[in-house]
Amino acid sequence: MSKPNQQKFALVDCNNFYASCERVFDPKLAREPIVVLSNNDGCVIARSNEAKSLGIKMGTPYYQVKDLIIDKSVVVKSSNYPLYGDMSSRVMKVISQYSPVQEVYSIDESFIDLTGFTINLNTHMQALKNQVKSWTGIPVCVGMGSTKVRAKLANRIAKIYPRFNGVFDIDSLPNDRFKKLLNSVEVAEIWGIGRKSAQKLEQIGINTAFDFYKADIGIIETLLGVNGKRIYRELYGHSCLAIEEIPPARKQIVSSRSFGLDLSDFDEINQALTSLTRRAVSKLNSQSLATTSMSVFIYTNPFKKNTPCINLSKTIGMSAPINDEGLLIPLCSKLLKQIYEPGYKFYKGGVMLGNLTSDKNQQDLFAVGQNRTELKKHPYGNTLRYASELGNDRWLPRAEFQSNRFTTCWGELLIV
Amino acid sequence: MGTVASTLEVYKSQLKSDMEVLKPDFDAPSLSIPIFSSRVQAGFPSPADDHLEDQLDLNKHLIHHQEATFFVRAQGESMLNAGIHPGDILIVDKSLPAKSGKIVIAVVDGEFTVKRLYKYKGKVSLKAENPEFKDIEINEGSELIIWGVVTSVIHQYV
Q: Which residue of B has its CA nearest to A409?
């Protein structure tokens, strides 16, 4: 039970989320090492515990660990975002049953507010953990603390030590044990301390979380500003960071991809960029935003030797906010036409919509596109495409090892 | 017409926790409530007005735990007599307890199968619903995981 007036937060974090999603639909993988690759099968972006203990690091390019992967029979999966997204929303909905205040912090993490609960919180969080596992198949760990920074730290403990059975309240730790714990944590691992801040701290000899904890608050504020001071205070148990129930509005939307292979032909690049623009606009529309600037960029692979290297981009501003793909797609083609140069092998491209504003303040009496929007909501998704998007689809990223979209596509259901 | 934008929904933590969290359901569809939809003074009132009811929603009828419900496609003929044909879509609820007699999606040594679960005197077996197929006895040394309970089967004729 928490003391009166004390705030209490919990961070629920899925264990190796992408790998766990793959395991739900392929139980044979339960104890196998798994790595999940980024878009276009470029880098390792997720690992099961077994893959971690083989020494495969986050962000490693696939080709660098390919030999190890074959040698140790590591299971390789291309990222399957439709599946991960759907599983995430299921997990988040189950978590929401345990507190009236929830912040979905990332695809696999959620803060909830437990302040003022008069029940046994450990039992409550064990029930949460068990229900998420039983309903969705995804294992989670829960860390609790009087601040978000402490809850995040507690989650780490819950993950490392099996004896806590996946739920740990850091406020229950005696002070000397708490300090000992901080000593074993690098300062960069405190939630909110970025890589740059950590470098600054290390320069003045603050290497561990404990060094940070016992440092003078004035020095921390001088070095890291008000944000650093907040994290410092949070570590001491003074809550400065509130639960953000509504995610902050985005400032820009970027939709970019490495192409499946290098492209030189204008029409092929235009096809790729049209599709990327459509994706960006659909994100724009789903958040009820409009844009007043658009950038288009294409570039060649800077790491490829003996080929001419070029990096092309152009940005255009608009007099009024636009959210209609019927206007933005021709604009993208127009910009591409202006920057495109033949004779280069382009390996990546994209569009960026900037200066986003709410689309509510638009007064377009002659609004068009009603029918288009409805068609897009058709269950089969990409029914309606722009003519400039049609082509040989060579640009589509590689996803050689992708599992089925078990939960979002009728044609790809689990077969039993 | 009046509109109720959000309804209050009761979420109940079903596993052991003794707390109940109440919160508005922001995803709830806006519900139009007809008020005085037929005119009072003149003409024939529509005889249907007295029988206004909700439209039937198959999702509501078939899915009771949305977050825990998955669709699975059946293959093979081992469950024909239970009405499961090859190609049928099974509605599977992962939240339900695996009681004896239920049709379940089971994982035996890493392989998926759909069978009827039997628990008797400490023994567990998975029974096929087709005499041409053998039952699976779960012996020591083999691993059984109940993945979910089949609640309905969708068999499409057209």
A: B71
Buried b / exposed e along A138-163 (16+ C-beta atoms within 10 A): bebbbbbbbbbbbbbbbbbbbbeeee
Q: Which residues of B are marked as active site?
A: 78, 115
Query: Which of B28, B23, B37, B38 has the alpha carbon at shortest distance from B4?
Result: B28
Q: How many CB atoms lie within 10 A of CB A177?
A: 11
Beta strands at A9-14 and A109-113: parallel, antiparallel or unpaired? antiparallel
């139009």: which residue's tokens?
B32
Query: What is the per-residue pLDDT across A260-291, written as a single tens digit (0 to 9) for each?
Result: 888 889 999 999 999 999 989 988 888 888 88
pLDDT tens digits, residue range A35-92? 999 877 889 999 999 999 999 999 999 999 999 999 999 999 998 988 999 999 999 9
Taking the Cβ of residue A407 and every Cβ of chain B, the question of whether any pair is shorter than 8 Å is answered with yes
Count of H-run helices and E-run strands, chain A: 13, 14
Interface test with A, best of B67, B105, B146 (most A CBs within 10 A): B67
The interface predicted TM-score of the complex, written ipTM, equals 0.75
Token couple for B25: 């359901």
Interface touch A416/B90, C-beta < 8 Å: yes
